[in-house]
UniProtKB/TrEMBL annotation:
Transmembrane segments: none annotated. InterPro entries: CobN/Mg_chltase. This is CobN/magnesium chelatase domain-containing protein. Signal peptide: none annotated. Residues 3-105 form the CobN/magnesium chelatase domain.
Amino acid sequence: VVTPDVGLYHPRHRPARGSRYFSDPREYLRWRSGLADPHGRLADANADPVVALLLYRKHIISELPYVDDLVLALEKAGIAPLPIFINGVEAHVIVRDYLVSRDKSKAGGARSSDTFL
């Protein structure tokens, strides 16, 4: 499996075909809206606070357990994680292109991240 330099990841996204990773926040949030949280409640990226997580691509490739643990713990707390992985030097580009735009509402098409980790 080829891991792109930049993308979005979720531990429960394991498609039978195609990429395991998402290429933009809108695609990820659309997929996530169909998930049930640990309490059986459907995820609602428009109601739940969105927290962008900037992660190192190497940690995704290495399958470090803290990544899955963090994403799932945020969901359990009623938070919509937006886990974006990067090579390390793209953080400013990701914030500019994925999370904010001139109108400050690029993530999810009409929703920006409430905070960054």
